[in-house]
């Protein structure tokens, strides 16, 4: 039980992937969960009871899961809850990786995502299965447009340009998604801007990153950042608004917004980012307190 199950970071596609756009998400190994022998975890035991009712032994050995949990195995790690980093997805990935049957391990594509979504429904009510899929496969994934998530290869140094900023506050994604949906459905002019401005810029950024076009990526990221500070201001915590852009970086929301982590992009590798507190570069293991 020594494997680690990473957090997930959505680089592009926040909100727009729910409106027909594409998204791009990556595993982030600096934050992860792992199995550890310790005192019983009542929350995990309740999840195990749910899985025993919802899943047949054909795909998931829930009897073995129950035995291990009662023998004081639990998941421990440093993925914060309420930050949009896939904490519940990592839990599902860890359980499926350890307790899936041979038939369960043969699943792939949309069927694998469907079963992981069924597991994560316990936490969110209606999961897409994307977060646990990324945590399970531990690969960057291209999302959206009605097709199965696709594993993609990113430039080796992409993590030297992207970083996370901790806002210091948790948030509930469903609340922010509902708020965005109400604005999108109730204000035609806002919906038009999302469809005709934000969504194309997100697609441009994804293509630029996949093609390692740094200039186009920086431009698209800056335009997304500007769109969000102008049109999604209430999704950005007040203390950070004055620091939304600097001489060598831009920020944008990471996931639903409202708190959790923000995603930043620097204009050169591992730039010195001032005034944002501790930043976490996506290059695994690099933390810079400034």
Q: How many beta-strand runs?
A: 10
Strand content: 15-25%
Shape: globular
- Kindly report the average pLDDT value: 91
Counting structural domains, the number is: 2
CATH architectural type of the largest domain: 2-Layer Sandwich
Biggest sheet, open or closed, and with what strands and sense?
A: 5 strands, antiparallel
How many helices? 10
Instruction: Please give the share of residues in helix.
Output: 40-55%
- The run of helices and strands is EEHHEHHHHEEEHHHHEEEE
Question: How far is it from the N-terminal to the C-terminal residue, by CA?
Answer: 36 Å
CATH class of the largest domain: Alpha Beta
CATH topology of the largest domain: Ribosomal Protein S5, domain 2
| Radius of gyration, taken over Cα atoms and rounded to an integer in Å | 19 Å
Query: In terms of per-residue confidence, which ranges show pLDDT below 50 for 5 or more consecutive residues?
Result: none
Structural class from helices and strands?
Answer: alpha+beta
Q: What can you tell me about this protein's structure?
A:
The protein has 290 residues and is of the alpha+beta class. The protein has two domains: 4-151, Ribosomal Protein S5, domain 2 (2-Layer Sandwich), CATH 3.30.230.10; 158-289, Alpha-Beta Plaits (2-Layer Sandwich), CATH 3.30.70. Helix content is 42%, strand content 20%. It contains ten helices and ten strands. Strands 1, 2, 3, 4 and 5 form a five-stranded antiparallel β-sheet that branches. β4 and β5 form a beta hairpin. α1 (42-54) packs antiparallel against α2 (62-70), α3 crosses α5 and α8 packs antiparallel against α9 (214-231). The longest helix has 23 residues, at 188-210. The protein is globular and about 55 Å long. The mean pLDDT is 91. InterPro entries: GHMP_kinase_C_sf, GHMP_kinase_N_dom, GHMP_knse_ATP-bd_CS, Mev_gal_kin, Ribosomal_Su5_D2-typ_SF, Ribsml_uS5_D2-typ_fold_subgr. GO terms for molecular function: mevalonate kinase activity.
């Amino acid at each position: 039980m020594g494997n680690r199950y990473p957090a997930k970071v959505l680089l592009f596609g926040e909100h727009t992937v729910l409106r027909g756009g594409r998204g791009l998400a990556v595993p982030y190994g600096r934050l992860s969960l792992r199995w550890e022998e310790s005192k019983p975890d009542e929350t995990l035991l309740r999840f195990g009871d749910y899985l025993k009712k919802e899943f047949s032994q054909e795909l998931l050995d829930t009897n073995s899961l129950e035995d291990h949990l009662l023998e004081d195995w639990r998941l421990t790690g440093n993925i914060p809850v309420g930050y949009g980093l896939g904490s519940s997805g990592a839990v599902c990935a860890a359980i499926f990786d350890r307790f899936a049957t041979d038939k369960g391990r043969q699943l792939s594509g949309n069927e694998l995502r469907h079963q992981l979504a069924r597991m994560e429904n316990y936490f969110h009510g209606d999961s897409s299965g994307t977060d646990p899929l990324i945590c399970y496969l531990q690969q960057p994934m291209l999302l959206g447009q009605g097709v199965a998530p696709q594993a993609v290869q990113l430039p080796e140094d992409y993590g030297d340009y992207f970083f996370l900023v901790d806002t210091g506050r948790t948030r509930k994604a469903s609340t922010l998604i509902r708020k965005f949906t109400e604005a999108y459905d109730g204000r035609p002019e806002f919906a038009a801007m999302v469809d005709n401005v934000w969504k194309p810029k997100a697609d441009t950024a994804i293509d630029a990153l996949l093609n390692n076009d740094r200039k186009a990526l920086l431009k698209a990221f800056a335009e997304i950042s500007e769109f969000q500070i102008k049109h999604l201001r209430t999704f950005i915590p007040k203390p950070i608004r004055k620091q939304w852009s600097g001489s060598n970086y831009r920020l944008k929301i990471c996931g639903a917004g409202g708190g959790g982590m923000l995603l930043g992009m620097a204009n050169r590798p591992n730039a010195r980012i001032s005034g944002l507190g501790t930043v976490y570069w996506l290059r695994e293991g690099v933390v810079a307190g400034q």
